[in-house]
Amino acid sequence: MRKGAETRERILEIAEASVLAKGFAATSIEEVIAEAGITKSGFFYHFKDKNELARAMLRRYVEANDRLFDDIFERGRQLSDDPLQAFLISLKLLAEIMADLPNGHPGCLIASICYQERLFDREVRELTTQSVQSWNARFRAIIDGIARVHPPCQHIDLDDVADMLSCVVDGGIIMSKALNDPRRLERQVLAFRGFVKLVFTQAAQAAMPPPASAVAAE
Amino acid sequence: MRKGAETRERILEIAEASVLAKGFAATSIEEVIAEAGITKSGFFYHFKDKNELARAMLRRYVEANDRLFDDIFERGRQLSDDPLQAFLISLKLLAEIMADLPNGHPGCLIASICYQERLFDREVRELTTQSVQSWNARFRAIIDGIARVHPPCQHIDLDDVADMLSCVVDGGIIMSKALNDPRRLERQVLAFRGFVKLVFTQAAQAAMPPPASAVAAE
DNA sequence: CCGAAAACCGTACCGCAGGTACAGTAATTC
DNA sequence: GAATTACTGTACCTGCGGTACGGTTTTCGG
In terms of Cα–Cα distance, which of A133, A131, A144, A137 is closest to A87? Predict the structure, then answer.
């Protein structure tokens, strides 16, 4: 019972690394079982086919990511009472974690799956949709909390700002991989941080005629 | 001679659509030739192996993208003498084109390749690196032109702003695919546009004491 | 119009990977 | 110690990438 879960976990870990490095289709089961030290029969004992492996991998990935976000945003809130400052702190923590590709964050499984959508069944695709939606909603809630205290810049849709975090991370991962420079991802997260800062600290000038004050509020 | 190039082009088009939909590894040659109406021998007459197909596809994609950027940024410059306004116009055009996934922009081949790096040889990977670098340099040059006229906001690295466009587009594509909502990509490009606007129009207040002037120069 | 090159077609074959089936065995746990 | 769990081993089928190579049609320049 416990030993089975261990093997299963080992398979998932090896498979995930392979998928992030080569894509799902190019990840051969034979390679995974060779690295895991089991036989093909052993593999199919745990997962009836490749699609079930994908489902399990995705669930594992989403859960780990959720825990990461829980941790990062919780720490931000601990370090500042101001929701904007807390978010900015959290983004800095996120950037730090992202900095050491591939150890910290070797890639995004969601992105990998999105580019191979036809390979997976409906359940896998629904899982990706739900995850992205839940992350967006989470970011949106935080942004909303900030907007309640700091007036946001007009003509900037806060939904889009929330979405942008995921986009910048995914895009940053791709650029880091393309240029073989892990620091690009870190810098993109920090650039997004700068954007958030701009949206919530330089808003008063654009919205109202008097251009003074409102910078160091709260 | 001419007919050969036609067939070759047809193969590339079919293969590209398939790669963007399913990934490179899952794109079977047999499927491509079936759709192209040729035989396997015919395929291998044009491309000695799958890697050569990848190279040709990538080159084709990069050239098309370059032409698109040439066109978009040229039109922006035609519509305004101010480099910032020109860029903002170009970004709006870009957003419009991106709006109709998958017709206008079914995905990014670079991103697809990045998530399957081990499948390709050195030349393909170098091609992706060069392309991304050249796009970043292009955006950076435009941003630089803007900064010469409009003082940028401090604490925002212009290299990162330039990089961010590619990141937002790639990330936006992924999100659009994940949520099955093509408009997300459009909105992300527009959100980036909002960011650029903020960086170059609300800078004076933060950087210098006198908050007037410098807006409508040139 | 003709000949040569270009652009294919057909067939046969190899190796590898995903996947199935199923019988047998070793390790855990109750 | 028995039952369940967690595998191993073998055998086999399918589909795909890729090679080889001989034959055929199409195209184009002279």
Answer: A144
Rounded to a whole number, what is the distance in angstroms from the first to the last CA of chain A? 54
Cβ–Cβ gap A175/B170 under 8 Å: yes
What H or E segment, with its residue span, contains residue B197? Answer: helix B183-201
How much is the pTM?
Answer: 0.90
How many other CB atoms are found less than 10 A from the CB of residue B128?
A: 23
Contact B95, B146 (CB under 8 A): no
> Which residues in chain B, range 22-61, keep a C-beta under 7 Å from any nucleic strand C atom?
37-42, 45-46
User: How distant is C1' of D16 from CA of A19, in Å?
Assistant: 20
Note the pLDDT tens digit of each residue in A53-87. 999 999 999 999 999 999 999 999 999 999 999 99
Classified as helix, coil or strand, A84 is: helix
Q: Is the peptide bond before B83 cis (omega within 30 degrees of 0)?
A: no
Q: Is the CB of A2 under 7 A from strand C?
A: yes
